[in-house]
Structure formats: C-alpha cells, structure tokens
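TA notes, week 10

Several of you asked for a full example with nothing omitted. So below is the full record: structure tokens for the whole chain, then the designed sequence directly under it. When grading your own attempts, check the secondary structure regions first.
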C-alpha cells in the first residue's frame, strides 16, 4: 500500500507545532511502513527524515484546491495531511485530514507569516462553521490532536467522517536524573508565540510582583513586541532569548522552577509535555486542554488574572510542593509519545487506504 504524507507545512527555519507534529510522525511512520513525503520547498528536507519525497505546489498557492491533480500522479492509496485545508478536488485516493483546534474562531487574528491574501481568506473562513464542514467532509477520515479538540469538533458537528485522536507529543530534550532536585534559582520559562490569546502580558505582570523570579521568553520576538513587554512592567525581570536551539531550550528548561503559560486556548500544548518530561513543573491557565495534559501535576490559575498567576507560581515555594509536582509531571508526560501516536495513525491510514482500494476495484 502506498502512503503519501503531506509535509508542506514543515517550516524551513524552526519548527512550530504543526511542523514538529509533521516531522515527528512521518519519521516514526517511515520506520514502520514505506512512505513518500510531499514537499513544496527543497529547504524543508533539512527538517525532515531521509525518506522518499516529491515536490508539489505550496499549500498557500492558488493551485491548492486542485493539488490532488498533482498528487494522484503518484498513485497513492491514501494521503495524510497535518492540516484540514489540503485540496481534494479530483482525488482518486483515500484522504485523512487533521484539525488541530478551533482557536481561530475565538481569536481571528491569523499568523503573521502568511501572505496578505491568505490572511484575508483566513479571517473570512473563521466567520462561520460551514467552510470547515465542507473541507472536513471531503475527507475519508479526520484526525485531531487531543480529546479536548475532539469534543469541540463533535459539539459543533464539524464532520460526518470518522474522528480519531492522534495525540501530539514532544521531542526528547534530554534524560534527567529523576527524582529532580529543586533548582537553586527561580527561573520561569515561556515557550510560545506572542499572539494576544497567548496571554504573555499576564505572565509579565505576574512576574513583576515576584522580584526574586525571572521570566525567560524563548521564542523569536520583534523589537516592537520586546519594547512593549518591557514597558508593560518595567520592574519585571525579563530575559529575551529571541529564539533558541533545542539544546539551549533544554538547558534552560531543565534548570527552571517552572514552565508557565497563560494561554486562553490551545489544541494541545507541546511545551507542557516537554517540561513535564524533564520533571519541570508547569503553572498554566485553567483551560480544558491543560487539564487533559497536566492533570493533578500542574498548578492552575484563571486566564487574564496576573495576581492569581503570581500566587500559583509562589505556591511552588511551599515545603515539598515543587518536588511533588516534579515527580507527578514526569509520570504524566510518559503518556504522550510519538511512537504510540504513529502506531495509531498508521493503523488508521492502512484502514482508509484499504477501503479506498476496495472501492476503486469495485468501480472497475
């Protein structure tokens, strides 16, 4: 059976969530079954495993609705895309699409790195549910990355197709000696973008009231945003890394008091799993997806509540509290592995590919 994996969303500079999801899963599946990758830029190969590949048009190209005309030349039995927007008109193969989350229905500001015309379409797309339903129902099956997202998809009746949860996971950032010892300093880590729904302002205001803590902001940041956050709370001890390698990120995270995030919505939360695997506690907003990942190990606070965030962070200073949260975090994080997710996804792809092949044979 020929499997084709859409890798056109892999970033050429550094992984974001969807890029990492793609690269990790195609690598794991490639160890279990022959797979061909679709790319749209040769530079993507630097972030992908050494597997067979084919070059097709970009997912942001006006040709995207008809990309199946290019893909069907490869004679696939089934194609998997880590997004829901892959064109499907004219396909003659099985298709599995992914919907990670419904964040942009509440927060309609699109990612800044998209072309202007795509950003405009993005806003229009998220004004109603019906465009999403049309896309998803053109697939044979739909994947999402968490039970939280699956619940929302069912709540809004976004697809009639079979829905499966293939959990996100996290790359190994090291093998810590467990149980961990409480770090000497009071370093907090934030990994994520600076879009408004991420709640970074809340974290900065919280740290401003904790003079013995410093907040390390790991992601790339514009000069404008750096200045704004600095002015927001001048007394906050902020350390801007403006991007970090995996090794640098692992070093900071492994010596941190906690990973913190004040996001109002997520489809998963890879940084939580990355921290928890290292035995670093997480202090996060009390939203369903973080409950799904963090369980009883995480410390929670209400969104947009900087004083509550500060109290949650300070609670780790209580005797034995940091150590208890650290141990529980490492245990819970073991639930999320790329290996297990790849096994589940591969089984689904083989099922869809087999059904598609039988249907094609019946038509002959």
């Amino acid at each position: 059976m020929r499997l084709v994996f859409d890798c056109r969303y892999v970033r050429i500079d550094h992984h974001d969530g969807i890029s990492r999801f793609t690269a990790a899963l195609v690598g794991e599946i490639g160890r279990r079954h022959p797979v061909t990758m679709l790319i749209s830029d040769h530079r993507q190969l630097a972030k992908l495993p050494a597997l067979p590949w084919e070059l097709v048009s970009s997912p942001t190209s006006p040709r995207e609705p008809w990309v199946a005309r290019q893909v069907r030349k490869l004679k696939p039995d089934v194609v998997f895309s880590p997004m829901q927007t892959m064109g499907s008109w004219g396909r003659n193969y099985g298709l599995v699409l992914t919907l990670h989350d419904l964040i942009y229905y509440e927060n309609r500001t699109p990612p800044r790195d998209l072309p202007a015309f795509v950003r405009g379409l993005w806003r229009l797309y998220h004004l109603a549910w019906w465009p999403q339903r049309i896309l998803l129902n053109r697939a044979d099956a739909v994947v999402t990355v968490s039970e939280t997202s699956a619940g929302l998809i069912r709540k809004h009746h976004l697809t009639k197709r079979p829905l499966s949860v293939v959990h996100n996971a996290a790359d190994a950032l090291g093998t810590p000696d467990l149980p961990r010892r409480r770090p000497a300093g009071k370093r907090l880590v934030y990994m994520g973008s600076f879009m408004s729904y991420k709640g970074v302002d809340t974290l900065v205001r919280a740290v401003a009231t904790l003079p013995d803590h410093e907040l390390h902001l790991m992601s790339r940041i514009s000069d404008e945003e750096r200045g704004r956050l600095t002015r927001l709370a001048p007394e906050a001890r902020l350390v801007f890394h403006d991007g970090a390698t995996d090794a640098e990120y692992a070093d900071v995270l492994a010596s941190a008091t906690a990973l913190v995030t004040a996001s109002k919505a997520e489809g998963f939360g890879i940084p939580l799993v990355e921290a928890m695997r290292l035995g670093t506690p997480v202090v996060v907003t009390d939203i369903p997806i973080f409950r799904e990942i963090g369980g009883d190990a995480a410390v929670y606070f209400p969104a947009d509540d900087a004083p509550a965030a500060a109290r949650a962070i300070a609670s780790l200073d209580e005797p034995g509290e940091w150590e208890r949260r650290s141990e529980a975090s490492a245990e819970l994080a073991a639930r999320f592995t790329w290996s297990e997710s790849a096994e589940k996804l591969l089984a689904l792809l083989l099922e869809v590919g087999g059904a598609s092949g039988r249907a094609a044979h019946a038509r002959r």
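The mean pLDDT is 91. Use that as a sanity check on your answer.
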